[in-house]
Amino acid sequence: MKHKPPVWIDKWLNCLLAPHLREEILGDLHERYALRIKRLGEGKARQRYWRDALTYIHLSNIKRKSTQYPTTYLYSPTMIRNYFKIAFRNLLKYKGYSFINIFGLATGMAVAMLIGLWVWDELSFNKSHKNYDRIAQVWQFVNFDGTISSYNSVPIPMADELRSKYPDFQATSLSTYTRDVILAVGDKKLTKSGNYVQPDFVDMMSFKMLAGSADGLKDINSILLSESVAKAFFGTENPLNKTIRMGNKTDVKVTGVYEDLPYNSDFRDVLFLAPWELFVANDAYVKRALDEWDENSFQVFAQLKEGASAEAVSAKIKDIRMKRKDPPGYKPAFFLHPMKQWHLYTDFKDGKNAGGIVYFVWLFGAIGVFVLLLACINFMNLSTARSEKRAKEVGIRKSVGSVRGQLIFQFLSESFVITLIAFVVALIFTQLALPYFNEIADKRVSILWANPWFWLLGLGFSLLTGLIAGSYPALYLSSFQPIKVLKGTFKASRFASVPRKVLVVFQFTVSVTLIIGIITVFRQIQHAKDRPSGYERSSLVEINMNTPELYAHYDALRNDLLNTGAVVEFAESGGSITGQYGGTTNISWKGKTPNTQPLFMANQVTHDFGKTVGWKVIEGRDFSRKFSTDSSAMIINEAALKLMGFKNPIGEIVRSGKEYKVIGVIKNMIRQSPFEPVNAAFYTINYNAVNTISFKLSSQLGTSKALDKVAAVFKKYNPEAPFEYSFVDEVYGRKFSDEERIGKLAAFFALLAILISCLGLFGLASFIAEQRTKEIGIRKVLGASVAGLWQMLSKDFALLVLIACFIAAPISYYLLNDWLQHYEYRTNLSWWIFVASGLGAIGIALLTVSYQAIKAALMNPVKSLKSE
Amino acid sequence: MRKTILGELEELVLLVVAACNEDVYGIPVMEELQQQTGRDFTISAVHTTLYRLEEKGFLSSSVGGATAERGGRRKRLFALTAAGGEVLLEIQQTRTRLWQSIPQAKLELMGLSANPF
Predict the structure, then answer these.
(1) Which end of chain B is more exposed for a tag (fewer CB within 10 A), N or C?
(2) Which stretches of A531-669 are assigned E, i.e. beta strand?
(3) The complex's ipTM?
(4) Domain span including residue A32
(5) Residues of B within an 8 Å Cβ radius of A
(6) Are both A730 and A756 inside the same structural domain?
(7) What is the pLDDT of residues A483-495, one digit of tens each?
(8) Which of B35, B70, B75 is the best substitution to test chain A (most A C-beta atoms within 10 A)?
């Protein structure tokens, strides 16, 4: 017949109409269509045809006739047992394929589990504190010449002000920063970290008292110990009312023991709590600062009353300082930083919260999802690719009486078996990887064996994967007509492999993006490491002066150390070289723009500091004992020189408290983040404002021998304290720890992503090679070379990976460019990274495919052609 | 006997099938209906009616007679059953009775022919 009605309408009607009506109704419709063409022409006939078709949407036409035969019983226990028996037999029959499937899927699941646990831990940070929702810390924004910085340090009177004038607070407590103090009981001396706090602190943070009570802190000579510290000192003895000596100075009585805080609490290093009054009594500076509104060196924690919101109260307390007399030029604006945000949202930019670690939670969450997706894609691709092979099985099963439902159940049970085994293997992988993971990620997470959500999520996900991966073979294969597949005329359509190809491209896009990502992260770290630090870090050692004995023997200590021959140079300074504390805006010079308040970092050092740390004087000279006037001399860094704008800095007068004469300019020294520009800083001589000893070890003796000699000297001067020191290059190295941690984790995940992708490719290649065995045999007989066959089999895959590279390049450029903007001092994204990653990916993919391709190409054609 | 009420379309379709010499299927029934009544019917309405009549036992059906324009599909051919004949007769008798009770003058007044037959 020449003119046929629209095929799609027929198809649609075929689905719609009940089977017993299909034939006659469609026949009549076609006949009528033919009549209409004669009468009305084709256009109108078509139009009417679909109008007619629409009128068949009626229940009586759609309702299926119940069959007169009994239906097969699909879900009898025997059948179900049989489904799983066949599933296991299939697993064992194709061992390689089963291994790729299970191993790949398990790896993906394990990565997702690890990342999930990590994210869970990050999100539950600080949640162990009962008043989590209502605790806040007082912060302030300060304005140094237009740049707004944020600090969690506030002045002491703030606490009383909040307590007396603002009814929104239920409790407030002053606190020091967590600091190291030497605790001693008899001869046993341990350096432990802890805070000096007010009594409200314990209840507010819901420290769990195991013995004694929080009220103990009301007594000035008391201390609360964490369980671990109490054990370390007293073992099984009752620690209550025992005496401990703090900092070789004060005797205090143990009035309580509290449970150690979990690792995911910001107070995890608080191993003891001592009374705030004790801190005040022992420190002259703090005594002076008691009523000072501009000494911002302390922490204030507060608990809000029910119903008070941190934002609302922040607005109320914002101008506390500005309303008082003599408001400082840096315009402090106080605000409350709620505990919910302490861990994940710690960055502030221009007076607004700018996220923080939450960025990495998102990043790793995304990586986890992608890796899992890659594993699922493998699973799906292999199942669908292999399914064509099973067409014959479907044909035979159907001929001997299997119904579609049974086949669907059969295929689904196979994929469920695989995903469930993979889930169990993933649990094992996760358990094995956790110790390493915890070390790299600086976490203490464990599998949440007892958490129902964990199981629900894990099992739910496994079932979902099984369902999705199994649905294609289950629904598509089971629809085959037995006669077609058994006759051998069945052939998958040309486009059956398109979704598979798209998925491979997706897998490699993710992999290449990850490769480019890790190369960039490591380049950024290396970039910052290569940045000249401005001082010599090797064999430089620092000691914290935490006992009174170490003070006031500068010359004697220095001479003794030099005389051992183990030490080349010795100096003291206020603060470690690897940190930068104490800025000031109280500074002026000739030519300073009036009414500006730039921030300068103030450093007090001794004469020998420059030589000890090896700073580089680029103009003028270093401090020297030869000039008695050096007590009011100043050395500035390049950044300060730029800010001050001196043409000839030497001899210029700078006022900061008193008048100083600039005698030298040094190269910028990286003391804070190596990713940020160096702040303007100046150095002055002051032998009293020091708290850190630094010395350079001689390279002639070995490090351990030299340290032994140094330790002997310190024992003489400071017999009560343990000899504790730190190497500057190690501390400096820790500045990169965040970035290195991210780099290592990302590298680990990227590696797994590539592994999973390649595993999938390997499986697909083996499948294709197997499918084309005959073709390859014939080609070989006709004279094809191994190289030619290899090229033929590998070309397709290489092309897919190439496409993936071109998709990955812009995506990763966009993401990484965004990431690098976080850093002031950053590496550039040069083109070779993209080319190298692309070539690398293609290389790995080719290597994977080549194994199968060459194996197939080397096969004896006699064998492959003889089979069947 | 169970009282079976036939709708108008049902009655018409049943009459068309009865009027044919041989077994008929959907298309000729519809063509005939259109010719006789001058009204337009959708084919699905005719199909539904035929199936319903079969269900009620007034028609019987068999399959056969595939042609090229049907794409090789067979027709469902309907034939009148005895029950179908009976119900038609019954309807006609009822109508005749009713006609006879109409006063002749009434129709003549309206200018209509008195005898339909």
Answers:
(1) C
(2) 540-544, 567-573, 583-584, 588-589, 600-605, 617-620, 633-637, 653-656, 658-666
(3) 0.84
(4) 7-62
(5) 25-27, 30, 42-45, 47-48, 51, 63, 66-71, 73-76
(6) no
(7) 888 886 666 666 6
(8) B70
